[in-house]
Amino acid sequence: MDVEELESLPAKELHDRAVHYAVRHGDLGFLWDLLKVIPAAEAASGNTDETANDLSRVSALLSDAMAAGEGELGDALRPVYVDYLSRHPDA
């Protein structure tokens, strides 16, 4: 899929494709990058309380990464998923 096609997908589908591809291919770099941007995406989506928790607990970040395709958080992370999936067209 090209970037334009990826941009048309819902955030949940982008999340699922990117995370599943990264897990299947052992792409810990992407998963780590995702974990690093989740606190900022939480803040951008208005969840400032969650931001403080995420910064202090790795387990919360791992949980967030697996579910970060839903709602406002998923929408805030769309650029991350589109960028990753555009670099891995077989995802």
UniProtKB/TrEMBL annotation:
<protein>
    <submittedName>
        <fullName>Uncharacterized protein</fullName>
    </submittedName>
</protein>
